[in-house]
Design a protein that fits this description.
Chain lengths: 564, 123
């Protein structure tokens, strides 16, 4: 297999979710030529589509970026880099206007103003809501990208790796990827590259993400020499549907159980209410629920029962609140969320950790930038509802502009031929002429997800994490010899295999980071170190590539500092 | 008394335009005593035979259209189309877009009927 197509651009963006699309618009409006690639079809893949559509912005008359900042730092348990929180909270309102400029619409209240609701951890009502949820936002951004002549879109294009430059300073010269539509292995040279590939929640058996969320860009950046932070920090959403099987992975809002909203609860199999009121923030809520399930109070499918059917607000109010796409979807599966009990359990929802960035979204590698969910240090150990969408818009815009400036003042770097050869063989070596192969990937994937769920789920311990490391080693060993047929058109077997390899390597980083952090904080709970230890652990864990593979160390948190 | 049904039979379209002249249907039996969405069925077929190509990414809303598929001759959204145990269904690529392989189509390459499709899905 050889490179059969070469492309060149100022700015290359890997991933066309909310962050990548916003970055593309920022870079292109500033004058850069942009190529944006997506492993699925545009506006038909990625996590942003699944988002309910809440976005935090301090628009309430008594609210301010300052209050939003305080809430974010507090409920991130002090682990967020404050220079980034400053950007997030300071630029949120401006990005609301920008989203509207690109054609996205927010829901409005009876008076015609943008409707704001208050979710746990927000000291004032701060959640706006996109019409059509995440699909509404992505559809608008995708349309704006299609209409911008500086932007070329490559859909069904699976990036397989980053290419270092041969300059010796670990800069990035471009990327290679497989065009799934025609099987062409393509090299893209770019002056600046933005990784915007989302999270890796598909590693957990219970998750509420689309199949794209395998962490590709995070691992490519790591392989190329970028530092990752807080990879042990994954947010478990309290109420992900576990049964019936056709609804597995969809979620229902635990936030709607709040007294001010629908005032429902989550019940055990004997009908006992589980959650206290006022409703705790996400990490507390999910831990209370996980404990109830471990204590044997769950259903035969390992779930608890989310129920708003006896809401004091009355059936009509419940129906009105649930008259949005996400709940209509559940209804179409024959389940009425307004009146029936829904079986839920905590599931992997959002990657808090990821690639380390500064306030210009720069990584430690010259020319390489990262934007939201794959980036790591703006949330801390928990994230409040609505900040994920704010982050993709704020940091997407910052990354796009910073990449444009980089591309303006730097030339293309020459690709390192050794790195290029290695990245080509990573793909080519997996292909065989043999067609009668035992399909190992689905089995190994299920084994990996079960192990990650068991040992790096809500409750972790040294012995469990070491067992996880062993399981991953065994799976990786078996995976080494797996090959797939040479299929030219839509070689999904190849992308399944490459994604599983990525998932295994990412799981190793998560296990090592979780072992390293000997305390509990936010969503990372160690049964052998159940206390938060601010004296010792108000620090990032940092993962980097070294001679012997993986090195975990600590990194200081950036305290109060202004965004430039 | 009938015993409750415990499987769904899916006849799926197989066609690799780079190797074959025409497509054919291949049968798979999916064990289940619960109803499944067409999208879940496709993912299960792909796990049974990974050479079968289908899209698996979902928006969990019935809104993005990535799951568009032809079920028993009718274009539908596969993520919200439920199939009961005991049923037999035929799954083919949606007819408004150019085929890539099996049931996967190229959404950036609409065929003539695209306009009608847009009208149908505009909600
Ligand atoms: C169910 C759910 C509901 C949520 N609801 C909310 C909410 O209401 N409010 C909120 O603030 N946050 C919410 N979040 C979080 C928020 O939606 C996400 O953090 C955010 O949308 C991530 O955007 P992104 O652009 O970084 O990643 P994505 O949207 O996942 O985009 C990444 C893109 O990269 C592509 N890609 C990946 N790998 C490759 C590769 N190798 N080659 C090419 N392309 C690749 C993928 O196909 C994908 O399209 C929710 C999350 C979930 C799971
Ligand atoms: S997966 Fe989005 S509409 Fe079906």
């Amino acid at each position: 297999m050889k490179i059969t197509k070469q492309l060149q651009t100022d700015v290359l963006i890997i991933g066309a979710g909310g962050a990548g699309l916003r970055a593309a618009l920022a870079a292109a409006e500033a004058g850069s030529k942009v190529i944006i690639t997506n492993k699925g079809p545009l506006a038909k893949s990625g996590i942003t589509l699944t988002a309910a559509g809440g976005m935090q912005a301090p628009l309430h008359p008594q609210d301010s970026p300052e209050r939003y900042f305080e809430d974010t730092v507090q409920f991130g348990y002090g682990l967020a880099d404050q220079n980034l929180v400053h950007c997030l909270t300071g630029q949120a309102c401006a990005q609301v206007a920008e989203a509207e400029r690109f054609g996205a619409q927010f829901t409005r209240d009876e008076t015609g103003n943008l409707a704001l609701s208050q979710f746990p951890g927000q000291s004032l009502a701060r959640n706006l809501f996109f019409k059509g949820g995440g699909v509404g936002l992505v559809a608008a951004l995708a349309r704006a990208c299609r209409e911008n002549e500086n932007i070329s879109i490559l859909e069904d294009f699976f990036v397989t790796g980053l290419i270092n430059s041969c300059s010796g300073n670990a800069a990035i010269s471009g990327a290679i990827g497989l065009n799934l539509k025609n099987g062409q292995l393509t090299a893209i040279a770019a002056k600046a590259i933005i990784v915007a590939t989302g999270g890796c929640q598909r590693l957990w058996e219970i998750n509420d993400c689309p199949t794209d969320a395998t962490g590709d860009g995070i691992l490519y950046a790591f392989r190329a020499g970028a530092k990752l932070v807080d990879m042990e920090m994954v947010l478990f959403y309290p109420s992900v549907i576990v049964w019936p099987p056709s609804l597995k992975g969809a979620f229902v809002h635990y936030e709607f159980l709040d007294q001010a909203i629908l005032d429902g609860n989550v019940y055990d199999k004997d009908g006992q209410a589980i959650l206290p009121k006022p409703l705790p923030v996400r990490d507390e809520a999910m831990r209370i629920m996980a404990k109830a399930i471990i204590d044997g109070r769950g259903t035969e499918h390992g779930g608890l029962l989310w129920y708003v059917g006896s809401s004091p607000k009355g059936l009509e109010a419940v129906r009105k609140k649930l008259d949005i796409a996400q709940y209509n979807y559940i209804r179409k599966h024959g389940v009425d969320p307004a009146t029936e009990k829904i079986e839920v359990a905590p599931g992997a929802h959002y990657l808090l950790g990821g690639i380390h960035i500064d306030e210009e979204c720069r990584t430690n590698l010259p020319g390489l930038f990262a934007a939201p969910e794959c980036a790591g240090n703006f949330d801390g150990a928990n994230r409040l509802a609505g900040s994920g969408i704010t982050a993709i818009q704020v940091f997407g815009a910052i990354a796009g502009l910073a990449a444009h400036h980089w591309a303006e003042s730097n030339d293309h770097c020459e690709a390192d031929p050794l790195c290029l050869a290695k990245e080509i063989s990573r793909v080519a070596d997996r292909l065989t002429d043999c067609s009668d192969l035992e399909p190992a990937v689905p089995r190994l994937r299920d084994q990996l997800c079960a192990a990650v769920q068991n040992f790096a789920g809500v409750i972790r311990s040294e012995s469990g994490l070491k067992q996880l490391q062993q399981s991953i080693n065994d799976i990786r060993f078996e995976l080494l010899s797996v090959k797939v047929p040479k299929t030219t058109l839509f070689n999904q077997q190849l992308t399944d295999l490459l994604q599983l390899e990525i998932m295994c390597e990412t799981a190793q980083i998560i296990a090592a980071s979780a072992l390293f952090r000997e305390e509990s904080r936010g969503h990372h709970f160690r049964s052998d170190f159940p206390q938060q230890n601010d004296g010792k652990w108000l620090l990032h864990t940092q993962a980097g590539k070294s001679e012997n593979g993986l090195t975990i160390s600590t990194k200081d948190i950036v305290m109060r500092q202004k965004c430039r | 008394m009938f015993a409750p049904a415990t499987s769904i039979t899916a006849k799926v379209f197989r066609f690799d335009p780079s190797k074959e002249k025409e497509g054919h249907l291949q049968s798979f039996i999916i064990k289940t005593s619960e109803p499944l969405s067409v999208m879940t069925i496709l993912a299960k077929v792909h796990d049974l035979d990974p050479t079968f190509a289908c899209r698996t990414s979902t928006c969990f809303k019935g809104k993005c259209g990535s799951c568009l598929i032809r079920v028993n001759g009718k274009n539908v959204l596969g993520c919200i189309e439920l199939v009961q145990p005991g049923e037999e269904i035929t799954l083919e690529p949606p007819s408004h877009f150019q085929l890539i392989r099996d049931v996967v189509v190229d959404f950036s390459h609409p065929l003539g009927a695209q306009q009608k499709y847009d009208e149908e899905t505009e909600q």
